[in-house]
Amino acid sequence: MNNRSEIRWAPFESIFHSKEVIDDLTQKKEIHSKPTLSEDELEVLERNILEAIHTKSYVQILFYYKGKNFVKTGRIVHILKPSLQIVFEDHTSLYFEQVLGLQFIN
């Protein structure tokens, strides 16, 4: 017995690989430019990062990478000064310029 829904959508998916084109357009639609932070926001962000290092608190960091925003959760271990990289306890890192926001986790 044939599945009616598969037969119904078969022509739609076969025309010029339209499903792939629609998926590609959807992904491109999600890409946006990096928000700019003011000097005050950068100072608060820097202060919060330093506080998170000294108190060894878990944080949730919102960061920008290749047109999208992502969230990283963890504990910040230290900052590599020459490259301004924030290093986490799981040995991953982010550049300070990628960070958009920081929230302390209880």
Topology record:
Elements: H1 4-14, H2 18-30, H3 39-55, E1 58-65, E2 68-80, E3 85-88, E4 93-95, E5 99-105
Antiparallel strand pairs: 1-2, 1-5, 2-3, 3-4
Low-confidence stretches: none
Shape: elongated
End-to-end distance, in Å? 55 Å
Strand-residue proportion: 25-35%
CATH architecture grouping of the largest domain: Roll
Mean pLDDT: 87
Structural class: alpha+beta
Number of helices: 3
Query: Helix amount, in percent?
Result: 25-40%
Largest sheet properties: 5 strands, antiparallel
> Looking at CATH, which topology of the largest domain would you report?
SH3 type barrels
Strand line-up of the largest beta sheet: 4-3-2-1-5
Would you report the number of β strands?
5
Can you tell me the CATH class of the largest domain? Mainly Beta
Q: Tell me the series of helices and strands, N- to C-terminal.
A: HHHEEEEE
Task: Please tell me about this protein's structure.
The chain is elongated and about 60 Å long. A five-stranded antiparallel β-sheet has the order 4-3-2-1-5, covered by helices on one side. The protein folds into two domains: 1-30, no CATH class; 39-105, SH3 type barrels. It starts with a helix and ends with a strand. A hairpin with a 2-residue loop joins strand 1 and strand 2. By secondary structure, the chain is α+β, with helices and mostly antiparallel strands. The chain has three helices and five strands.
Keywords:
SH3 type barrels; 106 residues; 2 domains; single chain
TL;DR of this structure?
With 106 residues, the protein is an alpha+beta fold.
